Input
Amino acid sequence: VQLQASGGGSVHSGGSLRLTCTDTTGFTVKSFTISWVRQVPGQDAEWVASISTQSSAIDYADSVKGRFAISRDNAKNMVYLQMDDLKPEDTAVYYCIRGWRTVGPRGQGTLVTVSS
Output
């Protein structure tokens, strides 16, 4: 299983982005609890959000609660992170990983840059 995140980009404060998590094989995302994690170069990774396999359990870090929404479409083998009201402090490389409230190991991430 190799998870990869996509959908990053550059936005201004208050903007929105939607990140997508897929498995390079295209088949297995639906089988796992998935977390989104972010990391600023030189700093420790920060857990952002987690979702269980059937979306029955969802949790968010306090820093993103009310602004970010994690969801999944198991028919498409995808997990999403909708990010609204983005702030400069949300700037980081975002990763999707297997597990609940965990920060690693991490695969291919996507860069989100928020300018003020």
User: Anything to note?
Assistant: Residues 7 and 19 are 5 Å apart (CA to CA). The mean pLDDT is 95.
